[in-house]
Please model this.
Amino acid sequence: MKPYVIGLDLGGTNSVFGIVDSRGEIKATTSIKTQGYATVEQYVDASVEALGLIIEQVGGIEKIKAMGIGAPNGNYYKGTIEYAVNLSWGRDGVVPLADMFRERLGIPVALTNDANAAAIGEMTYGVARGMRNFIMITLGTGVGSGIVINGRLVYGSDGFAGELGHTRIGRKDGRICGCGRYDCLECYCSATGVARTAREFLNTSQEPSLLRDLNPADITSLDVSLAAAKGDALAKRVYEFTGELLGEACADFAAFSSPEAFVFFGGLTKAGSLLMEPIKESYNRNVLRIYKDKALFLVSGLDGASAAVLGASAIGWDIVTPIV
Amino acid sequence: MKPYVIGLDLGGTNSVFGIVDSRGEIKATTSIKTQGYATVEQYVDASVEALGLIIEQVGGIEKIKAMGIGAPNGNYYKGTIEYAVNLSWGRDGVVPLADMFRERLGIPVALTNDANAAAIGEMTYGVARGMRNFIMITLGTGVGSGIVINGRLVYGSDGFAGELGHTRIGRKDGRICGCGRYDCLECYCSATGVARTAREFLNTSQEPSLLRDLNPADITSLDVSLAAAKGDALAKRVYEFTGELLGEACADFAAFSSPEAFVFFGGLTKAGSLLMEPIKESYNRNVLRIYKDKALFLVSGLDGASAAVLGASAIGWDIVTPIV
Model:
């Protein structure tokens, strides 16, 4: 029995590696910078070197079943990272990263995008254990999603399913999205969207607010959340507005896969009930009657710092199970 | 080997039965009125009596593997029809119709809603043969959908997944939907929605149109389609508007399951390229770049008159395969 998998949370700044057991305990961890390399080969060299040390700590590569990678623009079917604008060595093409690690480490390697990894992590170790139908929504710099139907992650015909942050909301405010289109959910319900809403609310009213003490350009979603926690009415309305839109969006998602739960993860969830209550209220007001009061609204049970590594590692168990 | 399945297309007016072989050939057919019965027991009695004759024609019940039913508000998991407002004997509660037929006929019986049945029919006998990821959209009196992911129909946590006709469009015209909410896709892109759009276009302009010869209240989607086929500019714009909205909706659906095809079925598809071209153009203009030019837009390959029965029968194969 090989008791461990490697998880790699490949972010725009850091690449964090963890060696994880089947209960989700991280046995060893290390990290490198993601960007300091001219080529992907150099990135993989540095990764393998860093990994070598922690692999020895747990008893060597023969203790390790597989590796899972969560990465931006990850394609599960091909094991590739495709045109990832935030990666210096992955921006202009298709990088076969899973194959590269497989060759170097001699173990099976699977790769998917970060939000899908988070969904599998939640299903393997978190609040979605035992659930066969749920939707994971990650509220970070952007809005990501991972959809689980019949106990399996939905990859679609091309490996790119589950981009719910890029469904369009009903409002037509004309916010431009990073994807080049207008009024995607992500423009409103990400950390950057929340900061943008706060700036708009400040601009369009004279209402007093703790946020007026800050330079508007510097306002972050954390500032808004701190102000709301102190009772700032304008800041609270920013979260009500954000939750309203998320609830409307989830009402449409219910009409797709009727999940038993929506699981939220990421920085914005730190606002707690300031965000979650408006989501639930808006959902129940907007959803088709047959779905009403059925879905749970949950916040990730995984520790924020290690959740991404756990999620990535869970993909490792996922591939190994059918193969071995 | 039992070579046949029974399909029942249970509609608001007629209940059509067919005995179907594995290639989708209908060997015998019969029908009864759906509504002329005070209780569901009487409806099942009449059904079994009518079925008796055609079952004998194909060599008796021992030639029949299973029965599939496509019905409004059908719940696949429970085999029930739930609060179907258009059925006199099914309006006020939960009718265990699959169990009732199973007891009377002594064969496995499965039941789902009409659009799901159409999707399975298309996958079994139609243009979606061999596809593992597609979305069926039925454009009839309402807008229904059946979603196939990884080769399986999506039923969700409660058996009611796939109500894409009740996702909300971006416009806020305030059309009220049969479901009690506003601006569902169905209010615009069903046969009744098309007629409504035509009346609105006639009301809000002085533009000459063949449709002005008709009593506005009597205008149907067929009238609009006939006028458009004769070159009527206003009628054409009705289809362009309808296709535009369907294309926008499909762009959002792609972000969910990234299907290899959208398959359209129902009365509105008779408008052909008048409707399909605007759908495709709008889709490619609205969809996230990674999905662009990937999905096919297809019209059902099944003969309209028998498609619903074939779809229902296909559910029969579907349940038998795992059980036997």
Summary: The mean pLDDT of chain A is 93. Chain A is about 40% helix and 20% strand. The longest strand of chain A covers residues 14-21. The interface with chain B takes residues 132-133, 147, 149-150, 152, 154-164, 166-170, 172, 179-181, 183, 248, 251-253, 255-260, 286, 288-291, 294-295 of chain A (CB under 8 Å).
